[in-house]
Amino acid sequence: MTPELKGFLLVSVVKLLVVFTVTLVGVALLTLMERKVSAWMQYRLGPNRVGFGGLLQPAADGLKNIIKEETLPGTASGPLFMLAPAMAFIPALTLSSVIHWAAPLRIAFDFTLPLLGRFAYDALTPMAVADLPVGFLFVLAISSMGVYGIALAGWSSNNKYALLGGLRASAQMVSYEVAMGLSLVPVLLLTGNVALGEIIRVQQDNAIGFNWFVLPLFLSFFVFLISGFAETNRLPFDMPEAESELVAGYHTEYSAMKFSMFFIAEYANMVTVAAMVTTLFFGGWDIPFTRWDETPGVAQTLATGVVMFLKVFFWLFFFMWVRWTLPRFRYDQLMALGWRVLLPISLAYVMLIAIAIYLMENVLGLASGLARLAVLVAVNVVLGYVVFVSLDRGILISGSRGRRAAGGGLDRAA
Amino acid sequence: MAIGVKVLKRPDRNVSYVRATLKGLAITFRKMLEPKVTMQYPEEKSAPEPERGAWAISPRWRGTHRMLTDEQGRSKCVACGLCPQICPANCIKLVPGEDEHGNRYPLIYEIDEFRCVFCGYCQEVCPEEAIHVGVHYENAEYSRDRFVYDLERLSAQTHPVSTLWDPSDPKGE
User: Fold this and answer.
1) Which of chain A's residues have a Cβ under 8 Å away from the Cβ of B38?
2) How far does A393 lie from chain B, in Å, by closest CA?
3) Rounded CA gap, B60 and A276, in Å?
4) pLDDT over 70 (residue B11)
5) pLDDT value at A387 more than 60
6) pLDDT tens digit string along A342-356?
């Protein structure tokens, strides 16, 4: 091996260890945060017995799950039953490797170790385990893999509730994948690139150092966020484990660490979606209204890392906040929302943004970033008014009874 | 007393889901910052005294029994047999005895607190005000037979006794 390859491997392994350790510990702490936030919203205190303020609660839960008995239902399909948690777990963790967690840093070293030989490395290193050129396409592809784990878990359990949960999960995730993919096309239109590093660069690149896509692409952000909730099976879309109907859904038959792996996968997916929302629409690690963070340096990397953490943390909190606010959707409402609301909105939005960009570039000839931002924001204000004030009326929460009364059907026939 | 019924406006078909959601989010966030109501149980306990405020237990609380004793430390019970007679759960075992002066006293007096339904009839029916239900709630034991309280144990209890409901003064004033 050349010294450069060894240096690259060393840097990659270090990044890998750091990101996975932080993700796994973060996921453990997220379970605590979920319980704390839910408690606070219900006037309770939440777990506060283990460790200082309950901080060691995840460790206690983990220990309990490791020493618990693993059950295997007699009629379950053994190998698949064992495989399913891993198939949910691995894609969820893989996704954290493509997220850019901080500003790139120039790392340079050249040293020689006994036995291993010389290591050499000198490059501007992005703070992601793998800075993939396929960017968010990789995220979309791998996040859809997670559904295999859930569907297999439901099927191999040989339990009707688990099977229904698995079926719902696959239908739901496949449906929302469509809207999610389409909602990202406008981002591609604005950046001309799917690489996450490039998307972040475009979002800090104008005269005021603030070009977060949440402003020019608000509807995309909105659709992406809702699809993100559906993709991670979080409330209000947690159909696959709707406990009032399906016991515990796809993981009814799982116990101990295998159950824990589904749990970790769900939270890791939440981290990914939160990080993706941040990266795609809130500038990633960008500190707004300053261009200081664009020149590489240790201070910049640390500061942007903190900013990225705060943004991701906010979105994780938002996930929990929504969970303890909204009741669960009914299954047909969920499907109607995905196919009849989000899909047409994102399709129309792609067309309108494409037209707007074409007009700005070829007819109006706007070159300055700020002017283009202003035009797109204006377009979004108009579209936002149409969607949130005119369209969003009685689409979602009308009961089947109300819809039947309005659209004909059983009630009118009676 | 009239029952206050709050009629909520049901969402009609033209409600905007997004704006309703935002309103809900605002409510949950506000609630999150408000003071919590959890009682930190083993450190904080409810007690019968009125100064315990929100955590006070009612003086009419009917918990595990207590047998009152006279000045010589003997139980006040005269083994009349009214309490096992009235007990709907049949949890009181009483074997009467008589001393050389002709005074009746219980040879065996046992209450199975597992069978007891804590109705308080025993206290109500007792002519000597001997057996009482108590204002007490921490009764954990390591074995089931520890829940059969004998006379010695019933007399050794120190917790306050329950005040029975008085029909002529229904609110305890």
Assistant:
1) 43-45
2) 5
3) 59
4) no
5) yes
6) 888 889 889 988 888
Residue at B13: amino acid letter: R
| Cα maximum dimension of chain B | 88
DSSP, res A111: E
B13–A contact, CB cutoff 8 A: yes
Task: Name the pTM for this structure.
Answer: 0.81
Going by C-alpha positions, the residue among B62, B15, B169 that lies closest to residue A395 is B15
Q: pLDDT (tens digit, 9 = 90+) per residue, A135-170?
A: 888 888 888 888 888 888 888 888 888 888 888 888
Q: Give the SS3 label for residue B161.
A: strand
CB contact under 8 A, B21 and A326: yes
Set of chain A residues whose Cβ sits within 8 Å of the Cβ of B21: 322, 325-326
User: Which residues are CB-neighbours of A213 under 8 A, at least 6 positions away?
Assistant: A187, A190, A199, A203, A220, A221, A280, A281, A282, A283
Residues making up chain A, counted from first to last: 414
Nearest chain B Cα distance for residue A325, angstroms: 6
User: Is B41 within 8 Å of chain A by CB?
Assistant: no
| Phi–psi pair at B107, nearest 5 degrees | -75, -50
Q: What is the DSSP string of B71-85?
A: TTS-B-----SHHHH
Does the beta-carbon distance from A325 to B16 stay under 8 Å? no
CB burial of residue A232 (10 Å; 0-12, 13-18, 19+): buried
Tokens representing A371 are 């002017």
Question: Which residues from A are below 8 Å from B14, CB to CB?
Answer: 393-394
Q: How far apart are CA A250 and CA A260, in angstroms?
A: 13
